[in-house]
Amino acid sequence: TPRVGVLALQGDVREHVRVLADLGADVVTVRRPDELAEVDGLVIPGGESSVIDKLARAFGMQDPLRAAIADGMPVYGTCAGLILLAARIADGAPGQQTLGGLDVTVRRNAFGSQVDSFEVDLEVEALGAPPVHAAFIRAPLVEEVGPGVEALATLDDGRVVAVRQGALLGTSFHPEVTGEQRFHALLLDLVRERVRRAGRRDAAR
Ligand code: GLN
């Protein structure tokens, strides 16, 4: 079973732990570098990206997280987590930094405030039928997508709300609050593949 972490600095950690556990993963919460070193994949939850950024730096997690991403660790960011994975933020808080990894520009709160939260059904070809029931809660929008980035889902007007680049996944919305498990399952597939490859590398030594 793949061992997957949920970054537990701030945000809706518990919901992600539940989905991953339902899918049969060995799930742990991650706050410190030594805990990050023990996992093969990671979820960065929704919450407040500027707070998660500050705490990541205060806990000495920014560099280890960047190193893990550069090393090819599968990471799935939802909402604030997507913002943290984005290379660029159009409207960051003063001094706000990201981990990067996804060659995208995101706009925070692109849909307005908490009262403008909404739910829609999205066709996601990579996941097949049925459509994804997606909850947008003070959600960011992916405004620009680099050449290596695949748009996994768009709104009816074409705006991008889910992306993949290599082992990194990001969604503007929160599948973990609507019972949608397929994005987490996709993350676990990426984690298993990486563990398999690492095993082959070790065996060849
Ligand atoms: N607007 C929040 C931010 O900037 C994200 C909201 C969410 O994660 N639901 O981080």
From TrEMBL:
Q: Which family does it belong to?
A: Belongs to the glutaminase PdxT/SNO family.
Q: What is this protein called?
A: Pyridoxal 5'-phosphate synthase subunit PdxT
Cross-referenced SUPFAM superfamilies, in alphabetical order?
Class I glutamine amidotransferase-like
One GO MF term on file is: glutaminase activity
Q: Entry's InterPro entries?
A: Class_I_gatase-like (IPR029062), PdxT/SNO (IPR002161), PdxT/SNO_CS (IPR021196)
Q: What does this protein do?
A: Catalyzes the hydrolysis of glutamine to glutamate and ammonia as part of the biosynthesis of pyridoxal 5'-phosphate. The resulting ammonia molecule is channeled to the active site of PdxS.
GO term, biological process aspect, one: pyridoxine metabolic process
What is one cellular component GO term in this UniProt entry?
A: cytosol
Q: Which residues make up the binding site for L-glutamine?
A: G47, E48, S49, R108, I137, R138
Traced from the root, the source organism's taxonomic lineage reads: Bacteria, Bacillati, Actinomycetota, Actinomycetes, Micrococcales
- Specify the domain of life of the species encoding this protein: Bacteria
How is the quaternary structure described? In the presence of PdxS, forms a dodecamer of heterodimers. Only shows activity in the heterodimer.
Q: Pathway it belongs to?
A: Cofactor biosynthesis; pyridoxal 5'-phosphate biosynthesis
Question: Organism, per UniProt?
Answer: Microbacterium kyungheense
Record keywords: Glutamine amidotransferase, Hydrolase, Lyase, Pyridoxal phosphate
